[in-house]
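Posting this for the archive.
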Amino acid sequence: MNAQQLKNSILQEAIEGRLVPQDPNDEPASVLLERIRKEKAKLVKEGKLKKKDLEETPIPEDEKPFEIPESWEWCSLGSVISLLSGRDLTPQDYNDSNDGIPYITGASNFEGGSLVINRWTPKPVSISKYGDLLITCKGTIGTMAFNTVGDIHIARQVMAISPYLINIYFIKYFLMRIVYELDKKAKSIIPGISREDILTAYFPLPPLAEQKRIVAKIEELLPKVEEYGKAQEALDKLNEELPERLKKSILQEAIEGRLVPQDPNDEPASVLLDKIRKEKAKLVKEGELKKKDLEETPISEEEIPFKIPESWEWVKLGDITEIARGGSPRPIKDYLTDDPNGLNWIKIGDTDKGGKYINSCKEKIKPEGLKKTRMVHPGDFLLTNSMSFGRPYITNIEGCIHDGWLMISPYAGVFDQSYLYYVLSSAFAHKQFCDKVAGAVVQNLNSDKVADSIVPLPPLAEQKRIVAKIEQLMKEIDKLKV
């Protein structure tokens, strides 16, 4: 049961006479009703009410919604209250310079049960008096506040309720309970409750003394319900965030070498790096790399954020991958094509939220656009470099990428594909990306900044074990969302 359901339950108990015990010494509601009739008749004689206001509509036995105590009475709410409907004013009839009486237009004037006054009118028509219960009846409905100001003019989005010899707080809590049902019955496109909805509502009337006890009990319980609601909201938020927090924690454990045990028989990452250096030297000789690509950027002790196992190595991402930015032939509309032989044009919109792979794209470009863009191949990593930057994807298709992407292509045999994906998805990697774009007017993640990022490199065999463990745990976490 959530806080609103608990509140509704308390209010329902209240209006059914089950929240506090009855006292046989209380004056019964039938006597109270008779006193109200006499009071209204007196007001008719004084010209303050019309004769039709004395009319009462009996409530058929089979329409009474629930049983009430013997000392209570069923009546229409209209028979025990005076209801004032509001009227709108034209702009020339109100001002914001405190000239006239306050003008209350709707829910925006209600804040925490009090009135916020920002308009005044010297031409009031629908005047609410001090002590009236105000309720919004159009648009945002059921918001209530007491008139603690004095004479105020109310717009048609507001009604003012003044009871005859009834505890007005009891009426407030009764309305809090029924307003939702009244709103559901509304036939208008704009949410609202009508004057008739209020006046004809079936009202369970307790003895006056019991009304006071009920109000006191409600006001004792509602702060506790509010506390319960806040605690529930905090718990719901925690439950909502917990799966993502667990995933982040698992990725951090993984890149620190604490998710799976190390195996002394694994070929250490240092040997793997030597192989990469030899491969790069070979590519330089073959003219596929430049000599400067053999240069490695040293990593200082200050850059290392945590300890890793002895068989691992810290590396700069640019030393073990090729990183390049995409490009866009312009104007792009001149290069888009419906020709099935066109080149795939991979856009950020082709990704799925929270997805890992890019499996298809919606658009193609003409082959002549290739010289102004960049081709990527299945297995390449694509990293968003602007707006929501630093989100990695693995492409399963060949295609061209625009300048909103960075392409990351690892040298063969360095990374298990999924291990690199999880490293780039980690909070550790994202923090580095954020730090590198901090202070920039336009926060773009360029290839040099990504190349300068450091990553922990485990032995290749351990990378595979880490991936298997991550994916096992991620499946278990996803079950928490169901």
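The longest strand covers residues 158-163. The mean pLDDT is 90.
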